[in-house]
């Protein structure tokens, strides 16, 4: 891989160009010292490209003829990535700092294969973007208790959750390739759980780094649309019947 690119950022837009434009502004403002490239996927064929005239880093623009799922889009971007590290990044993430030095430092620790920042909502409250691996019993308990607070609460030090949300993930290019990227059978939801599960089964852990923090303007589409709810429930069922889930169960990770 060419040494001039250190981090490849993969961002997928689903008609979210206003959010993408804000994210690009944040990256340009706070991450100018990084050797980065952006791979921007327009998942809707008629979506207009953003204004790139002020961008100082390389941008590859991918256009899909038909919409792809979360995992398929990022796997497609990975096939174009030149960086030593690959970063999955949602367009609704906002940056008020450069998160990459702390994340790269985390990845230098033994057995850490994925690093993620602390994620807060627009209200400044920590989101539950890092959780234990789910089980059917845990899902039912969460449903009936209505508990949606963060299950890991940051006290300012890095920690190793079972899985982190796919809104922001950074990992070495070689490890993404080693675990064969995202499972594209998940169109939306649970692909990040499965990804971190397969990471664990191959001897790697995720680390969440409070020294790196970002803001997430979450849309929670599954609460607003029956179609998204069906995708959510279908992905949950797929995970609970997958080789990843049973591998984690046999290894005592659940």
Summary keywords:
254 residues; alpha/beta; Spore Coat Polysaccharide Biosynthesis Protein SpsA, Chain A; 5-stranded mixed beta sheet; 3-stranded mixed beta sheet; globular
CATH homologous superfamily assignment? Spore Coat Polysaccharide Biosynthesis Protein SpsA, Chain A
| Average of the residue pLDDT scores | 91
Number of strands: 10
- CATH topology label: Spore Coat Polysaccharide Biosynthesis Protein SpsA, Chain A
Percentage of β-strand residues: 15-25%
| Count of separate structural domains | 1
Given the structure, what is the number of helices?
A: 8
Please give the CATH class: Alpha Beta
Secondary structure category: alpha/beta
The topology string of helices and strands comes to: EHEEHEEHEEHEEHHEHH
Q: Biggest β-sheet, characterized?
A: 5 strands, mixed
Helix content: 25-40%
Stretches where pLDDT is under 50 for at least 5 consecutive residues are none
Intertermini distance: 37 Å
Radius of gyration: 17 Å
CATH second-level architecture: Alpha-Beta Complex
Physical arrangement of strands within the biggest beta sheet: 3-2-1-4-9
Oligomer: single chain
What would the principal axes of the Cα set say about the shape? globular
Topology (elements, then pairings):
Elements: E1 7-13, H1 17-30, E2 36-42, E3 59-63, H2 70-78, E4 85-89, E5 93-94, H3 100-107, E6 112-120, E7 130-131, H4 136-145, E8 163-164, E9 168-172, H5 173-178, H6 191-201, E10 205-216, H7 226-240, H8 243-250
Parallel strand pairs: 1-2, 1-4, 2-3, 6-10
Antiparallel strand pairs: 4-9, 5-10, 7-8
Helix pairs in contact: 6-8
């Amino acid at each position: 891989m060419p040494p001039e690119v250190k981090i490849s950022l993969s961002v997928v837009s689903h008609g979210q160009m206003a959010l993408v434009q804000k994210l690009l502004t944040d990256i340009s403002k706070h991450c100018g010292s990084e050797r980065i490239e952006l791979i921007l996927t327009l998942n809707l064929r008629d979506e207009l490209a953003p204004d790139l005239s002020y961008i100082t880093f390389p941008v590859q623009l991918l256009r899909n003829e038909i919409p792809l799922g979360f995992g398929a889009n990022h796997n497609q971007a990975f096939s174009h990535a030149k960086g030593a590290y690959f970063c999955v990044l949602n367009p609704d993430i906002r940056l008020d700092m450069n998160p990459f030095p702390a994340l790269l430092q985390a990845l230098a620790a033994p057995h850490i294969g994925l690093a993620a920042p602390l994620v807060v909502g627009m209200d400044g409250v920590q989101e539950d973007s890092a959780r234990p691996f789910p089980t059917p019993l845990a899902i039912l308990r969460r449903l009936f208790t209505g508990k949606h607070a963060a299950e890991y609460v940051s006290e300012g030090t890095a920690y190793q959750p079972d899985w982190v949300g796919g809104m922001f993930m950074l990992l070495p290019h070689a490890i993404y390739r080693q675990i064969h990227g995202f499972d594209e059978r998940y169109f939306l939801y649970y692909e990040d759980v499965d990804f971190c599960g397969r990471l664990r089964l191959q001897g790697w852990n995720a680390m969440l780094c409070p020294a790196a923090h970002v803001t997430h303007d979450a849309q929670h589409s599954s609460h607003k649309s029956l179609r998204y709810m069906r995708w959510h429930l279908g992905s949950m069922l797929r995970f609970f019947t997958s080789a990843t889930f049973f591998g984690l169960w046999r290894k005592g990770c659940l």
